[in-house]
Amino acid sequence: MIVAIYPGSFDPITNGHLDIIDRARKIFDHLIVAVLQNPNKVPLFSAEERKRMIEEAVADFPNVAVEVFDGLLVHFARSRGCRVILRGLRAISDYEYETQIALTNRKMAPEIETIFLPTSTEYSYLNSTVVKEIARFGGCVRGLVPPGVERRLREKFSSVPR
Ligand code: PNS
Questions:
Q1: Which of 8, 43, 88, 94 is deepest in the core (most CB within 10 A)?
Q2: Does residue 121 sit in helix, strand or coil?
Q3: Distance 9 CA to ligand 1 centre (A)
Q4: CATH, domain range 3-124
Q5: Active site (annotated) includes residue 17
């Protein structure tokens, strides 16, 4: 039984992330989407909000679970019996950063392999920062994020002066 972990900030989850989850759940026996609670960053959504939005989006995927973690990813992965860390690669520009994370994690936990999945081309330009920028200034994010995220972004920014 291969358990894979898909870590990230997911602030918020986009359809690019969801595409990776949907493809990975068909490869691995069990997939844990791990939401980082990062004390060094002030996110738009709390870790619990981010978790809930992902749970809604993956409700039809029986072998996918969502958890919040803090501290080192490899410690969390070990505690869940994960042998694979999964990351999406959008473009060559992601490669350097992702390799640095992967090699750091391998140094600390050689028994855990990082596997990269290329993002589908229609989402290769997409990230959470772009989505927040569009939503903040009243643009339409339909098709870029799951419907529950679109609604929450609208709620979040309707009360914030631009
Ligand atoms: O979505 P992101 O912000 O690109 O995800 C980055 C993430 C969560 C994969 C990375 O920051 C992480 O694993 N942080 C936990 C701390 C850790 O384990 N650091 C050592 C590896 S860099």
A1: 88
A2: helix
A3: 8
A4: 3.40.50.620
A5: yes
Spell 118-155 as b/e; 16+ CB within 10 A means b. Answer: ebeeebeebbbeebbeebeeeeebeebbbebbbebbee
What are the pLDDT digits (tens) for 4-56? 999 999 999 999 999 999 999 999 999 999 999 988 889 999 999 999 999 99
Adjacent-strand bridge partners of 3:
30
Residue nearest to atom 16 of ligand 1 (CA): 72
Residue 74 CA, closest ligand 1 atom number: 18
Mutation to probe ligand 1, out of 17, 18, 33, 36 (largest number of atoms < 8 A from CB) = 36
Report how far ligand 1's centroid is from the alpha carbon of 8 (Å).
Answer: 6
Contacts of 1 (CB under 8 A, 6+ apart): 29, 30
